[in-house]
Amino acid sequence: MTTPDGREGWSNLFLRKGHSVWLIDQPRRGEAGQTSVAGTISTEPSDQTWYTQFRIGTYLNNEFTYNEGSQFPKGEEVLDQFFRQMTPDTAMDSANGDQNIDTTVVAQAVAATIDEVYERTGKDSILVTHSQGGMPGWEAARYTDHIAAIIAIEPGMAPMVDSEDYHALLERKIPVALYYGDYIGTEYTDVPAAGMWAMMSSSADTFTEAYTAAGAVSTIVRLPDEGITGNDHFMFQDLNNDVIADHVEAWIQRTEMASGTRSDAQPDAPASSDGEQSGGTLVVYYSATGSTEAVANMIADTTGGDLFELVPVEPYSSDDLNWTNDSSRVSVEHDNPDQRKVELTAATVENWDSYDTVFIGYPIWWGIAAWPVDTFIEANDFTGKTVIPFCTSTSSGLGQSGELLAEMAGSGDWQEGQRFRSSVSASDVTDWVNGLGLDG
Ligand SMILES: Cc1cc2nc3c(=O)[nH]c(=O)nc-3n(C[C@H](O)[C@H](O)[C@H](O)COP(=O)(O)O)c2cc1C
To answer: Of 44, 179, 322, 382, which one has the greatest count of Cβ atoms within 10 A?
Structure first.
């Protein structure tokens, strides 16, 4: 797929970055224009309106006049191609100004596509939405568990805090990035749509404030703040579309969504070293925002084991956990391994000797075990114990996290372990535990 002037579009650019790319036509538009709902299509041209609305420029004195510094490719032929890419909505009475898109139909179709991608590849998808497609993108989170992240390019609106979409996103802790181009804000007096876009983009601030305070990730990228200027509503077609694709890719890498992989492989059943599994089971965990805790509770329920929560003397606040801020506590600790010593309210367990099997749970932080567990590992002798790591993460796998802990412990029979997504179902956890053969 190319830009209106024939350069490579994002589908190619992201393929080159190693992603599989799936293009979705939303129902009742483009190649998916077939519909069971009747509508009327207006024949009235609207090129000038959209040129203005999309902040490419203004139609002045019978001429398309680009905004100053615009990165939109120039020339009559380019505009001709651009306007030809527009396709009418079917299933509505557009002749009468009806823009009543059935968001739920679109969201469910997007979710079904993402589920199918998961079935075919075993991978969660990074959903990239644009403009009006933003709304069904948020809603899609209600209907699938296989969205690794959402990158919304100038979405119509961010989700309203406390809406059903908001809760679905938060429950699954789906990382979100919202990208906005240039010419947004009332200071752009020559750009007629600048004020309207300022209003739309301010919904990103309200959403992000609440979403991050609740422990999830939302990053707002206003390109001019990053030194990237001249972009309109179609930043993926602009002359610097490669620069913006690089920016998006850096965000993906930072949030470790690149693999989108879910590690569903069953670990080896723990070897029963001396044929005895009669000793007690202990489920030790650290959880900053409750996801790992939920899994720990499920494991304890299934095994009848005891729970032991690792609690830092100085717990991590949501500001401390804001890894998008370079100077937050986790970011500083991440950058300075010698500052990762986290004192715990208790690092040893009563009756440690009575436990043969120890589950150790933690969230993944930057691909490894959240470091508050290190203090527990260093304080205990695991000789003679079967140790089973488990973790929760948004998309990263278990990686080397268990091996690194085993190395740190220097004793114990460490199993491969298991990663769960942040909002895993109880049945997935129970199935895994039952498959370990602990009773055998
Ligand atoms: C500082 C920090 C770093 C994170 N790094 C990753 C990561 O590298 N990969 C990932 O998939 N999720 C990452 N996450 C998301 C958490 O692993 C995920 O939300 C986890 O389920 C949180 O568990 P908890 O609620 O028990 O704290 C990170 C979260 C935080 C706060």
So the answer is: 179
- CB 81 less than 6 A from any atom of ligand 1: no
Vertex 50: Cα angle to 29 and 5 (nearest 5): 80
- Determine if ligand 1 sits within 6 Å of the CB of residue 368: no
Instruction: Tell me the pLDDT of the chain (440 aa) as tens digits.
Output: 899 999 999 999 999 988 999 999 999 998 999 999 988 988 888 899 999 999 999 998 999 999 999 999 999 999 999 999 888 889 888 777 777 889 999 999 999 999 999 999 889 999 999 999 999 999 999 999 999 999 999 998 999 999 999 999 999 999 999 999 999 998 999 999 999 999 999 999 999 999 999 989 999 999 999 999 999 999 999 999 999 999 999 899 888 643 343 233 233 333 333 333 448 999 999 999 999 999 999 999 899 899 999 999 999 998 999 988 999 999 999 999 999 999 999 999 989 999 999 999 999 999 999 999 999 999 999 999 999 999 999 888 899 999 999 999 999 999 999 999 988 888 889 999 999 988 64
Protein residue with its CA nearest to atom 18 in ligand 1: 393
DSSP-assigned letter for residue 334: H
Does ligand 1 have an atom closer than 6 angstroms to the CB of 297? Answer: no
Instruction: Read off the DSSP letter of residue 220.
Output: E
Would you say 303 and 436 are in contact if contact means Cβ atoms under 8 Å apart? Answer: no
Chain centroid, CA 379 distance in Å: 35
Which residue's C-alpha comes closest to atom 2 of ligand 1? 365
**pTM check: above 0.85:** no
Q: Ligand 1 atom closest to Cα of 292?
A: 26
Q: Tokens representing 253?
A: 């890498």
Domains defined along the chain, listed by start: 10-257 (3.40.50.1820), 281-434 (3.40.50.360)
Ligand 1 centroid–CA 159 distance in Å is: 22
